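ingest -> validate -> predict -> emit
validate: passed (alphabet ok, no gaps, 331 aa)
predict: started
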Amino acid sequence: MQKTVFYYNKNEIIEEKTESDDRIKDSHNLWIDVLDPTDEDITNLATTLSLNKKAIDKIRQKSKKPVVKEIDHNDKFIILLHLKFNNFETLETIPLYFHVGDKRLITIHSQKVDLITKVKKILTDRETILETSIDALYYSIISSIIEDYEQLLTAIELKVFDVERDAQYRPSGRVLTYLDTLSRQVIILRRHFWDARNIINYHINMEKDKDDIKYLQIVYDNINQLIEMIQSYQDTINSTRELFSASISLQMNETMRVLTVFSAIVLPLSLILSVLSLDGFNLDNLLDLPRYLGFLLIVMLTITILSLIAFWKKGWIFSYDKEILTPRDKG
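emit:
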């Protein structure tokens, strides 16, 4: 286990490895960040920090169900998820446990999440947090987590565009697999976003009298926008499935068109060859040409030319995409 202790007020920030005396506690806000505690460490934390038993049980179970619980009038226990893609097929969910009390914030999580760097950046960018209650720091951490969610959507968005292009120009089984993976990841992300919105909504409604709640007002709007965006991506994925089916149908039509043209030209010629009994053509004496060879060649050439003209008129062959002119171009 690795534990880092921060004391801060509007004048200073003190970083230590253990808690200090009560004199500092009375004049500073306290943030304790704990990485990867064992069961024994959790028991010791519960004793030294007077943590709630139900909250401790959730931490021991490594619960990943986002929740906010009111422990008493001043203390809350919150579980929020940090999300990241290890690869596109695997979305990793890392639980963050918050214990928020009067002038005290305790965070417990995996070392895969660098919360200390996040908080240092937050305090650098928003120095006014140092002058306010511990709730402001907690709300700002939530805001930072939601910003990370936006990066996940960016990855989804880029992948949707790539798969959409492949579905149109290079439809294959791999594209269909990607579409299934995208759809599954979008559904999972949307559920996690809903859970995060529920937690933010709880704070906004239950703690609306707090001055520091302003840090969550914008975050609530952002998470709603993320949910709307991910819903639009789901619609795009569904449209891409239809585009994929249309592209496959178009490829089949092109294939059938080629086979039809080939058959329409070759089959009549084969029939004429059979009618004029040229199956027994003597390959040992090429100078002994059949009597109707000239007529046959003319008929074959005529059928071929007439077939090509007919296919050309129908636009099956020798057709090119015409440039679409706008009214401005015509003017």
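Strands lie at 2-8, 13-16, 29-35, 67-70, 76-87, 90-101, 104-109.
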